[in-house]
Amino acid sequence: MNLAGVGSCDYRLFDVLVWAHHVLTDRQGWLRLVGVGPAVRNALDEATTSECLLVYEAAEWTTDLAG
Description:
The chain has helices spanning about 10-25, 40-45, 60-65, and strands at about 30-35, 55. It is mainly alpha-helical and about 70 residues long. The chain has a domain at about 30-55. The relative contact order is 0.23.
């Protein structure tokens, strides 16, 4: 999921991301976050969601994941 346009977030975004992660992994899928800005990254770290969500720092990695 590309979060490049997200400048801030609250617990509702975390709830949706963690829910989506669980649904996708239960179905043998995955959720990867790209384009995460500093404010969102700090919020994810503080909420400890980064322990279950993979965050890719470089958006160009998405082409490797899709291929």
